[in-house]
């Protein structure tokens, strides 16, 4: 399951999953030292314990950013090419 680091509040990080599941809350200490909001992590549950392991996926973050750039560009082009209403 992929999650995106959405917010840090105090010592708690809120990670939002791609699915419609509830956010995942983890201590900030479980994040890599050089984390930034918007980072994408693969969540791996360890069988021998209840805790989760977060593996940052830089390529997935870059892929998502590129998809969003393309969507934004299409939307901007669509609005620029829209013909004005004639009254």
UniProtKB/TrEMBL annotation:
Superkingdom of the source species: Bacteria
Annotated InterPro entries: DUF3006 (IPR021377)
Protein name per its UniProtKB record: DUF3006 domain-containing protein
Upper taxonomic lineage: Bacteria, Bacillati, Bacillota, Bacilli, Lactobacillales
